[in-house]
Amino acid sequence: NIPISEQNQIIDLVDKLLRLNQEVKILEKSENKEVNKLKREINEIEIKLDMKIDSIYGFSRAEIRAIEELE
């Protein structure tokens, strides 16, 4: 079982990703300079989310590399 606190952290990160991706889609239409800033923030959150999930499942470095190669 995954502790509730960790579940909530993952939910928060996913919520942020969804919100930021929505903002990017809107801003891309207006060619706003904020798009790059939001994309960097999305990337940072995706990295945090990946690390959290890797930690929960106890993936080794080799397993993480193998998963990344599939992407």
Summarize the structure in words:
The mean pLDDT is 88. The chain has helices at residues 4-30, 34-57, 61-70. The chain is mainly α and 71 residues long.
Describe the structure in brief:
This protein is an all-alpha fold and about 70 residues long. It has helices at about 5-30, 35-55, 60-70.
What gap, in angstroms, lies between the N and C termini? 27 Å
Q: Which stretches are low in confidence, meaning pLDDT under 50 for 5 or more residues running?
A: none
Strand-residue proportion: under 5%
How much helix, percentage-wise, in residues? over 70%
Present the secondary structure layout.
Layout: H1 4-30, H2 34-57, H3 61-70
Helix pairs in contact: 1-2
Which features characterize this protein?
71 residues, mainly alpha
